[in-house]
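Technical note accompanying the year-one report. For the benefit of new consortium partners, we illustrate the data format agreed upon in the data management plan: each record pairs a sequence with a structure-token string. No post-processing was applied to the example shown here.
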Amino acid sequence: MSTKSVQNKTINFPSLAENIALVEGWVDNLCVQHNVGEDHYGNILIAVTEAVTNAIQHGNKQDPTKNVDVTIDVEESKIAFMVKDQGEGFNFDDLPDPTDPE
């Protein structure tokens, strides 16, 4: 991956399922621009689109008046993504243990 530095670039869009294609295109372009190898590209695409899908469906409850923000931060050889919705949130301490066999 190249060492180009792009700080806090954000896209913002309404909570509509069709906007996932917008995110996919953005990830595609970003990975090409920063020479991300195919071994990492697929993982990045799945992680980011899954986070956006969750923000639309669960966070914003598919309310198109609520937005999703996707921010990237590129530093040296790292790309970080942050997905933010306008939902009410939840306390993750109240969730059951996903590794519990029951």
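Partners are asked to follow this layout when depositing records. The radius of gyration is 15 Å.
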